[in-house]
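S1.2 Input.
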Amino acid sequence: MDSVEILEKLVGFATVSRDSNLELIEYVRDLLAAHGIAAKLYTDAAARKANLYAWVGPQDGGGVLLSGHTDVVPIDAQNWSSDPFRLEQRDEKLFARGAADMKGFLACALRAALQASARRLHTPLQLALSYDEEVGCVGVRSLIEDMQRWPHRPRLCIVGEPTLLRPAIGHKGNVRLKVICHGRAAHSSQPDRGVNAIYMASELIQRVRARQAVIEFGGSRDDAYGVPYTTLHVGVIQGGTVINIVPAHCELALEIRNLPDEDSAALLAGIRADAAAVTAAMPQGGAARIEVELINQYPGLETPMDAEVAELAAALTGNSGRIKVDFGSEAGLFSTQLGIPTVVCGPGSIEQAHKPDEFIALEQLGRCDAMLDGLLERLR
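S1.3 Output.
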């Protein structure tokens, strides 16, 4: 099978993060098994989702791991020109949800594995397909926890997020927070008898914005990123019930995207200090309080420019430059938790990700196939 045929199969599975990915994983397992390739599944507690790990060649460690996620973002409220879960070619582009992010890379990686199965490899080729990357790199952690116990691990890792096949040696970390502001309800005609939780949230947001300004104009910078500093972002606010009640409850969703060398724990401590200061300034003798709950986090990636994996990706793609990307990925987990030198390098553009009429160019799939063909030659 070629990459386009495999991609057509993969995008046909509507693996939105809120839904199961098992049909796709079972398809991949069966496809690999038909070519004599062993695979291991790591199923979640609800038995609705799974990671897949597979290998071709010697099983005594080393080799190169090709890693990617199987989940995609929703299509809700998006206006597509064609069925998002059916591959459609228009001109030299292939349209479908996940075509760029990142089933295009998975299709190329599976094609490479099938080709490898017919060869005698001196060094193993390994595959890792994960779930729930789009909601915070959650699913891959069960595979990584198991890999921590392995006596032999992959020597290098390529995570195939869309970079137009430019080797990315860095990305930011991510911290996701839930902030709950507890006030006191009262009739809106007597606001002095209550504590307005929306006002508490507003005060905290202003402090977060002030912290962002300090970071932007005086904090750490890395001009290799499109946004060269750490960002603090409030993405959701929910509070109040009706207009004539002082709201007693308000929630925020807050995100930190930190440069790899920025201390995310210190940033979190600063936000908690801001929450305590807002609480202390509220009336009503301690009735008010703000909870800052850590929901999820994953580390950034900082691979040396001259690392073997960066040199390998540059040689395979013909792109000698190195980039850093603002979006996050599972690469930071492989690098920090397993010590596997990792780069992000895959076909397609992140500019197409998460949008209606997402597409990948046929030229990009062809170049990715060529990259992985070159890798197989090096593994012989």
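S1.4 Remarks. The first helix runs from residue 3 to 11.
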